[in-house]
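Re: weekly structure request thread

Next one in the queue (234 aa):
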Amino acid sequence: MVGVMAHREVLLAVFNNDTPADDINQKYGSYGEMTLTVLNAGLKAKSSDAILRPTFFDVVNGTLPPMKELAKFDGLVLTGSGRALGGKVELNQGGWEIGTTDITLSEAGKTYLETASPTLSMQEVHRDHVSVVPADCINLGGSPATPCQGFVKLYSSAAPTYTTAPNHPTPSSVRILTSQFHPEFTEDIVKMLIEPREESGLFTPELAKWGRENSEKPHDGLVMAEAILSALGL
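Done, posted below.
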């Protein structure tokens, strides 16, 4: 992932690792498109006139770029669940987290998410979690049910200098930024995710009601969007 400066196009490779239900896809697009929506909102909040230029890859159906082509991108965005870096992902014995969830930030979390607040509130729909944080990664914070709600991996030494544009700055110290929560989710998206799970019996009526009520609470998705942009040097 490399840094970028304002007044230029930012090339992003966006990997869709999951596919939303048809009704959500028709209304909000793919998970990658939802992510671009909140990132563009983050650009506006930061008063940046950079332009995000995404290229989408449908991982579910096996669409991947050749490795040598990745170097042309300023950043990689991976949506959906995944296992990498040597950590461990498993079913959360703490149960489901649905809707806006309060997350207590570590000192690293406050630093890399660029907030003085000890907590953030984020939209969630998940029952799996990272039970073992990968080596050389730093936990950003957690909730009572999910001790790791995200982590960062830093460059091991001074970040490399890139020369893809005149006066191109070096990237920040953040090489990888992840989250269990979903900054791209809105109240409506969460409610649309709850409905089929309740109809199928995966969610009890009580759990679905609790999730809907949580989704209506304010959330800080924009804070995470701005942090992602900062990791890109914006």
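The longest strand covers residues 97-105. Residues 1-6, 160-171 have pLDDT under 50 and may be disordered.
Next request, please.
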